[in-house]
Amino acid sequence: xxSVTLEQVRLNHLIKQIYLDLANVDFYKVAKMQIGLxxxxxxxPYLSAWARIGDYDAKAVFNALNSGQQLVRLNSFRxxxxxxxxxxxxxxxxxxxxxxxxxxxxxxxxxxxGDSEIDAMLGxxxxxxxxxxxxMRELKAACPKIAEGLRWLMFLLAARxxxxxxxxxxxxxTQTAYARLDKWSPGVEVxxxxxxxxxxxxxxxxxxAFGPVSVNDxxxxxxxxKTKTKKAIEAIDGVVSCELQGNPYYIVEQELEAISSLEFxxxxxxxxxxxxxxxxxxxxxxxWYVDDGCQERLYPRSAAFHWPEGSEAKRxxxxxxGSGVNQSGEIRPSxxxxxxxxxRWEFGERDQRYFVVYDLYKSxxxxxKPVVEERRxxxxxxVNERLLPxxxxx
Length: 394
Hints:
Layout: E1 3-4, H1 6-16, H2 27-33, E2 37-38, H3 44-53, H4 58-65, E3 71-75, E4 81-85, H5 89-104, H6 108-111, H7 115-128, H8 136-142, H9 150-159, E5 163-165, E6 178-180, H10 181-184, H11 195-210, H12 215-221, H13 226-233, E7 239-244, E8 247-252, H14 253-259, E9 270-273, H15 295-298, E10 334-337, E11 340-350, E12 353-360, H16 369-387
Parallel strand pairs: 1-7
Antiparallel strand pairs: 2-4, 3-4, 5-6, 7-8, 9-10, 10-11, 11-12
Helix pairs in contact: 5-9, 5-11, 7-9, 12-13
């Protein structure tokens, strides 16, 4: 088995995260290549793209999300909201939807209801959405008899690829309207694909986007069983195993052949990933990008260890006091140097403008520190000049 080094793995990921080849790459290609952009915080997709491609027209992206052009918001992985490229939507729905539906069907509102009754309620919602997108309060007014369970019915409709989140009043608003996919993004169809087959197809995309990966990584990311993951990954044409620190990992064969010749560019590669960026969340085996001693700072279990937004100076991360690592993977905003996390950052707000505070808790070359400061300033400019104008309430 071919062995790979941490440096080779990190550099390979930098290439796959687009840092080393920005030619003809925009927000839409980032969303498509990365499978889906995490959107628990509605700013995260915008900031995830900025971290990879720099400044871009955020308003155009907001308008695309508000019109169903190439991009949609969907409850998918673990039921959380993601921004999905419409080319990826059918596969994501078929691979993640059945598990989401099984989870939703356990809710008391649905648990004791039969399929025919549930289908009738879903039909009532779809009929209410036949003309235009509606917000939740508007749906409850249109469907008063099932208003109590509308939240869970919307999950079911998302799981089946029938409804997506549509218009929002501004870029950070969670008060989105819901729309029928056939009305919102005409031409986007979700074919019937058996769940295990769809998961196998998604697994191939996952290895292509995030490899080298372990069985544990994918089983945690989707999630799926380790036994099924190992069997499926070994059956994918063009995917081979390699060894990283004595453990088996999987990677596209062509990448493995090229990995030994990869070299870091002369210039420093510094980036600021936002809260809940999809890339670090793609792995449960985190040793290759963050030291064990730093995980409590990046994945704090308690909100008491999130920096206050009002801070006007760099703040050190307080001692976690044994609170431990949040195993759900809720990662705070992070600073990366050449494919490895070296620090953390947070937003502060003053006089209706955002600023960025950060702390480096790992040594980096002295020449890289000015680059960190430059990226911080660029991030502040992007947020204040690009995101705030499309994030005003009103």
